[in-house]
Specification:
single chain; 243 residues; alpha/beta; 7-stranded mixed β-sheet; 9 strands
Length: 243
């Protein structure tokens, strides 16, 4: 079946509903049949104990297993693009009680999406943020995650998962699909705070700090499950230096 045919099929509302139900069921199957370990759990637990919302920062390719590892009693939403794949993700995580802010913090609707993000964070709803989404470059953080944290005063917590049995899609984000009956790990990173009055240079430093922190927990998840880490897309500076 061609990509164009798949897209036409997924344009059907009934098909999307069935597809997302099956995706949610698959995520639950993997969650229940995998022997999971945790690392850094104390970081989110310290904020959960105070009912304090935060920005959960995860690379787009490691988004799949956030939902089953999130406490149902804690309100959470995700920033999800308006693209077709974003619609599928939004419908899938809704099965786990996740809300959604549709849009992106860059582009035409950036200001509106950022406003919704900040409002939800101030209302004690944690926001899942993929700083390299919706289209990359892979594992490179944009400015939106810093803006959301700075304007809301919320802490940023990096997140990643890894699995011994897995498939990496040949997509821009190298999306990781864990397979059942393996061993997995969830890694949470140390909290990162950004001052409300941060200068332009401090904002840039914070963005690079968040980028490095998410990549670090992602690398740890891969190493601990016996895999070579997925590399990020070369930065603009790296590309220029290589020329």
């Amino acid at each position: 079946m061609s990509t164009a045919t798949v897209k036409r099929v997924l344009d059907n509302t009934a098909v999307r509903s069935v597809a997302t139900a099956l995706a949610a069921a698959y995520v639950w199957l993997v969650h229940m049949t995998t022997r999971w370990e945790g690392e850094g759990q104390e970081f989110p637990e310290a904020l959960w104990s105070k009912n304090e919302a935060f920005v959960l920062a995860v690379w787009h390719g490691r988004l799949l297993m956030v939902a089953p590892h999130w406490p149902r009693r804690k309100p959470i939403s995700a920033l999800i693009s308006k693209h077709r794949d974003g619609e599928l993700i939004a419908r899938t995580v809704a099965w786990y009680g996740f809300g959604a802010v549709r849009g992106s913090t860059h582009g035409g609707d950036g200001a509106a999406a950022l406003h919704q993000l900040v409002r939800k964070l101030k209302q004690d709803t944690t926001m899942v943020f993929t700083p390299d989404g919706p289209r990359g470059p892979r594992m490179r953080a944009g400015d939106g995650v810093v803006a959301a944290a700075r304007l809301s005063g919320a802490t940023v917590i990096p997140f990643a998962f890894g699995a011994t049995r897995r498939r990496l899609l040949e997509s821009w984000d190298r999306f990781l699909i864990p397979l059942p009956f393996g061993r997995g790990i969830v890694v949470w990173g140390a909290p990162i705070r950004i001052a409300r009055d941060a200068t332009e240079s401090e904002v840039t430093a914070a963005r690079l700090c968040i980028e490095a922190a998410i990549s670090e927990v992602t690398e740890r998840a891969d190493y601990r499950t016996g895999h070579t880490p997925v590399p990020p897309e070369p930065s603009a500076a790296s590309a220029e230096a290589a020329e």
